[in-house]
Structures are given as C-alpha cells and as structure tokens.
Design goal:
Layout lengths: L1 E3 L8 H11 L5 E5 L4 H9 L4 E4 L4 H12 L4 E2 L1 H11 L17 H12 L4 H8 L3 H14 L5 H10 L12
Parallel strand pairs: 1-2, 2-3, 3-4
Helix pairs in contact: 5-7, 6-7
Length: about 170
C-alpha cells in the first residue's frame, strides 16, 4: 500500500498513482491530501486510487480506513463518497457531437477566456485563477474534449472563429 500526496516535486501524485496502478496493479494507492476539491478527487479515483483521505482525519479513523483497503474496501469518508456518487450517478449527458460550447462549465469558460488572452501555461492559468496546476490541466483537458480540439492553439483558434469567446473578453486581473 502507498500513501500518496497530490503535491510532490517532479511527478505529481495523480501521475504517480497512474504509473503505480499501471505498472504494479497489486499495490493499493490511497491519496492522503489536504484538498477535497472535486476535480482532484475524481481524477484520483480515475487514476486508480483505492481511496482519498484528508489529512485532518483522526489517526484512528485513518488506520481504520487503511485496514479496510488491505481487505479490498475503498478508503473514502462518507462525505467524499457522497461527492463521488453525485458526480458519477448523474445520467450521462449526450456527447457533444457538434463542438458544443454550451457543454462548457463556467470555470472552463474562465480558463478558455484567459487562454484567448494569451495566458496559456498551466502555471500562469493556475496563478490567475487561484487553482492548482493539476486542476487547470483537468479543465484544459475537458475543454479540448468538449470542443473536439487536439491542442491549446487549435481550441483558441476554434473559439475565436466561432465567436464563442471574443478577443479581450476576459478582464485583466
């Protein structure tokens, strides 16, 4: 079993979790972090984590969850399990077949507006939006998927051509 932090130098915790889950599937990975941000939770589970626990958890509860993982149980508090169920129990939305800009969330539109302004690195986007770089990566990936584009340059050109975001539409912060 590996207790994994999300913020690590070199390789972030989500990438390390994916790597361990792929290369050593017998090893159980439990994320131990200070953030209960939905996107991090969802990505951790998609990456193969067997659990997601917050660092403020009482030690006896932490050990109880870890013992459960050794028996094949997930390590999720009821609050985090509820978040997962809310996200994944929703009926699936129809796939955006025609580059549907209405499928973008408000946060994804904010990211997209900054990209149109020329703020394109994850670090700069994260700083401007007050998010982690991993969260920005998650939003950029969703934008590319929803608009059926392959990279940031294509998505910026696409939204400008189709008037989804006007140049200079996001205010400088």
């Amino acid at each position: 079993m590996v207790l994994m932090d999300l913020s690590m130098p070199g390789l972030d915790g989500l990438a390390a979790t994916r790597l361990i889950s792929t290369e050593m599937p017998q090893v159980k990975v439990v994320i131990l972090t200070g953030t209960d941000e939905d996107s991090q939770l969802f990505e951790a589970i998609k990456s193969g984590a067997q659990g997601y626990l917050l660092k403020d958890l009482a030690s006896r509860d932490l050990f109880s969850y870890l013992e459960g993982v050794s028996r094949g149980e997930p390590a999720l508090t009821p609050h985090l399990a509820h978040k997962l169920l809310q996200e994944f129990a929703r009926p699936a939305r129809p796939a955006a077949t025609s580059h549907d800009p209405d499928a973008l969330t408000e946060r994804e539109r904010e990211v997209l507006e900054l990209m149109v302004q020329g703020v394109t690195t994850n670090r700069k986007l994260a700083r401007r939006l007050g998010l982690s770089e991993n969260t920005v990566k998650f939003h950029v990936r969703n934008i590319l998927d929803k608009l059926h584009q392959h990279n940031r340059a294509q998505v910026v050109g696409f939204v400008l051509r189709h008037g989804i975001v006007a140049p200079g539409s996001a205010e400088q912060k």
